[in-house]
Request: fold
Amino acid sequence: MAEAIQKVEEKEEDYDVLDMNNYRMEKLPVREKSKFEKFLVKIGAPLAIISFILILYVFDFSFLHNFDIEKLSASARINFDTIGMENFIHSNKAMLAIFAASLILWITEAIPNYLTSLILIISLVLTGTLPEVDAYHQLGHKVMWLNIMSFILASMLVATGVAKRFALWFIVKFGHNANSVIFSFLVINLVLSLFISATTAKAAILLPVFMVVAAIYGATSKSKNNFGRNVVLQNLFQNNMGAASFLTGSGANLLAASLIAGALGVDVFFSQWMEAAFPVAMLLMIIGWFVGMKIIFPISPEERKPQIEGGMDSLKKELKKLGPVSFNEIKSLLIFGSILALWVTDRYHGISPTAVAFVGGIVALLPRIGIVKWNDVDIPWHLLLFSAGAYTLGAGFKVTDLPQISVNAAFDAMGFGDTTPFWLLYVVLTGGMVFSALFMQSKTMRSMIFVPIAIGVAVRFGFPIMSLAFPVALLIEHVYVLPFNSKPALLLYQTDMYSMTDAFKYGITMQFIAWGISIIMAMTYFKWLGITPDGLF
Reply:
């Protein structure tokens, strides 16, 4: 027993809190599911099956017989004229049953998310809701290709080390005190969001850096302090707000844009998204920095001082290990710089973000000219299969017009007249999108649910689709309150630098602030951009 204790003590003494290798993803402890989460896993599959059967064969959805044919979308009207009233109603019931069952499986994680998507796709085919060609070809959706190309380009940045070099250089250059260190991560997250579309990848790149910084200021899993809480929770918030700034910031943004574009009949441009989202995200990150540092987790004078003498030297050593800037790093920056320039100017030259990324991906993979080989590329195919299922749901919604029919039925049942003010609809829809993140892990699913609802509400009340759907889409990335709200949230919770209560206090505060800012933007900035109409607030 004494020997075992001695070995443990020796192991703890050998542990270097300034060694970045100790904070790699694979070295973090795997979080055990809570009893409630295990309960959800057990009931998920039976609940999904029961809901499917009840909706498709038992419940009476009489509202499906009362929709106004003239109000159907063009694609739904073509489908209606082709298959007739009874088959159209059956398709809507099947669509609703599949959607409900899939949502239950996704939320409870009873089976892997990608497997749920595969079941969803074949279910839409077997129930006759979608033809096989429409169901299967979603894997070839242009947004899917943009995701694939983005992962290739992100792998280029990771393989060359340019992303890690930038993060270390910025902290060493500008992180002179507690305030500037945490503010530095704000800039780093924002810059990396331009290049890397996966929020989990960004979190994995920065995690070793901010864990070493936290240790320098005396914060470890065994000795928590407010500096550590700030640096980790604000990185989580900044990661998501960086993703919210750009159309390519996450697959959920791209899905939302494609849903809106489908309803409008014209594309939503990268520059258009950035023009609306970037200033708001910047404002929220600055507010988040102030709220964390000054109000929720105020840093004491003692915590503002480095606790390990010469601690910043460890970051300088890591930077020095990378050696001089390589030719491949310069090439990767030139490639991505060219891509960003074309993305930002897309409304002027008309080349889609997918086509631009396609060219960039090809250049990155070219022998001798390029930077990475195919085996170096990290493409999470399980996430792409999951996304394909979400896009197939979108195709099902399009041919059945279920969101529009359901919205009309719901508003009729609640007694909402056609004179419902715009501001009330805006407040309800944006609030629903923000706070749905508290209990839904998938940003893609939130896009799939709330963006079509916003489109349906706009169409019903005669408001421009962009006026409601676009502000709702800009709130997709607010997934930072609880560990199960997103993969980066779960990853950073495993660092054991803060409690769930800490995360909730900071996260729910920022969600309310984000909702309020969105309402203020609707009355000012969004109105100036022509997103929300004059005279409706």
